[in-house]
Amino acid sequence: MDMEVTAWHSLQSTVTAQQEHRPFSRATLHRIAAFARPHRGRILRFLLLSVVTALLAVATPVLAGWVVDAIVRGDDPGRVTGLALLIALIAVSEAALGLLTRWLSANLGEGLILDLRTAVFDHVQRMPVAFFTRTRTGALVSRLNNDVIGAQRAFSNTLSGVVSNCVTLLLTLAVMLTISWQITLLALVLLPVFVVPARRMGARMADLQREAAAHNSTMGTRMTERFSAPGATLVKLFGRPADESAEFAARAGRVRDIGVRTAMLQSTFITALTLVSALALALVYGLGGHFALRGTLEPGAVVALALLLTRLYAPLTALAGARVEVMSALVSFERVFEILDLKPLIAQKPDARRVPDGPVSVEFDAVSFGYPSAEKVSLASLEEVATLDPGDGSRVLHDVSFTAEPGQTVALVGSSGAGKSTIAQLLPRLYDTDAGAVRLNGVDVRDLTADSIRETLGMVTQDGHLFHESVRANLLLARPEATEEEIWDALRRSRLDGLVASLPDSLDTVVGERGYRLSGGERQRLTIARLLLARQRVVILDEATAHLDSTSEAAVQEALAEALAGRTALVIAHRLSTVRSADLILVVEDGRVVERGTHEELLAAGGRYEELHRTQFEQSEAGEAARSAR
Predict the structure, then answer these.
(1) Is domain 3-340 in CATH 1.20.1560.10, yes or no?
(2) Domain 395-629 part of CATH 3.40.50.720
(3) 445 and 427 in contact (C-beta within 8 Å)?
(4) pTM score of the predicted model
(5) pLDDT, tens only, 233-245
(6) Which of 237, 378, 411, 472 has the fewest CB atoms within 10 Å distance of its CB?
């Protein structure tokens, strides 16, 4: 290996190793061993090949020295040819073993990535909704990408590097000491001049790269937010493009400056160490040549020592930073394990059973609830804060009780923030109650399987969220086995079949991020079509018609009436006109049910419901008058 290349690898490994250096627990090693256990066969083969490769690397300089000695002595040309062929064979073997080692390394590393990513992904999917409301998505995705790759490096790079470098170092030292212990010791005197600058320069460059990474992360977050459909709209409506550009340019300019400084540091370092390497080679050639001329050392030994010198510095400098490299890889493992150690608040019981067949009743029995504190559902590193917000833990629901018999529709009305959506979220067990019980057909939802709850409950939320996928994919999320005819039937009943048929690729048209290629009403109707396709026995509508105009609302209400026939429904609405026909209306204020009854009963009672109804009626009349005056 050329000395300049050796210096470069030394600097790069040191910089990489010093990116993050923190203490770790011994328990981490045991957990890493557990993840590595399924791959132990490949790890063993990988390490053995690394050792063989190290042996071949040391053999080549020795054979080169033998060739020189054979030439100087005037040996039989056949011997020189044989040694040359042996060197060629070793070179071919090194190349083949290098490819095989790389194949094993890739399989080992990618297999570990697969295991870690799958474990983290599956674990995150089991986390409660509260986890996602607090966590920064970018920080969470980084654990699945950067940290998992950092953990993989411990096996594919660091582990093999430590083993092969140790073997190479020991063999090289042994051979060099055998050839000339005096020259070997003098060559080692220059080692600190080679290693110390690498560590110091590596630390300085690591600081610069951390700063550049922070600026790039901020720019990435800014671009992600500004380049999304709602973010771009907000900037165009309220933002200041010139200020946005100036701030972005300032950070990009700092990254440029760091890049220039880093390039100069690298060049200075490589130039200095190449000079040191040249001096070390000069020492070997000068002193070795002197010994050779005096007859105390063979000429071939001088050549072998010069070649072995490069094989000596490379593993020495690599091993000098090996501990930091290992620590850095272990930090990545700890950051991954940090996610896996965060226990989901919602867990299925081992003996959980399915929701009983037939029409389903819904019961809230003295339910009280407060949103969990950050310590229970999140990590400071995922929220990118110094400490988690402890929160006051105050309850948002107090002693809520009601029953929806099979086939009945129960409506929740009241002021914004009164707790209506929170009640709806307890039913599909997005959260668990603090006190009381939520039951389906008389069975506490905490005793039911998650799959059967999903099969039983369907929900349309206010934002009408869609994935950046095709219309078909968004619909099949509800029922993957649905036929083409059933999909079009659901679209027809949600009054969306004409629109989808007119799209460029019909059902295969991609709806865009969060469905922003569709209007608000179209997105909402598509989520209603998804609900209709699922055919669940209990339906929750959380402001399902909030984004529809009067014409579309009337059409969708007809479709919903057809879909809800014979099903139990929980409907949340601000517009009281949409819940007049409900079997039971609950008025929720400050987390309590303050009134209950039918539309007529609540109007006659003259309470909060009557006040809400009168206010909306007056606003409606005022709007009609304003439109008539135009």
Answers:
(1) yes
(2) no
(3) yes
(4) 0.68
(5) 667 666 677 777 8
(6) 237
